[in-house]
Amino acid sequence: MKITLLLASFPATLAAQLAYTPPAALAVKAKDPNNNCVLPEDYHVKEFTAITNDTGHSLVSYKLTFLNTLTNSSTSCQYGSDSKPIPSPNGGGLPRYSCESKDVNFIWQEEPKKLTMIQKVCPDAQGQAEYEAAGSVIISLSCNLNVCQTNDTDIKGTFTSLNPTQNIRAMRHKRGVAWASHLANQD
Predict the structure, then answer these.
(1) How many CB atoms lie within 10 A of CB 155?
(2) What domains appear along the chain, each with residue ranges and CATH number?
(3) Which of 65, 107, 120, 126 has the CB geometry, 3.0–4.6 Å to 116, for a possible disulfide?
């Protein structure tokens, strides 16, 4: 009974600091100093610069630096004509692009000038992230002769969601007696 109350209280304790509520088991894992699980609160987008198309309305390339001091992560991110989207964990949604660090992805939405940063967190024993934190910022740009930059050199964003990752792995299934037995027993 007491352990149940303890587990139930962890998300509430973390929620006071975070903009999202982690599952109870993950909150316990993050509090354990023997685990490499850090639940990030916020991040920084630095040095965002971009180039627009001839009309000056759409970004054709951009680059930025992602920084998360809590997870001690810093990586450069860029988008250009040769950029290829990576598969989305749920198979849909807006195109995602990987940063130099494979643990950080981003999504750009042109119309509201919104940048969503996604960071994989809480690796398992094999080093695969179990969750990903995401948050968005609106990027205010000033453009001159097709070159755009922000008025701020440091834009602070807040992670507002935490979702399980769906690591895409090629899995080989052995088909044999158990598989045949399973099919034979279906009505």
Answers:
(1) 19
(2) 40-164 (2.40.350.20)
(3) 107
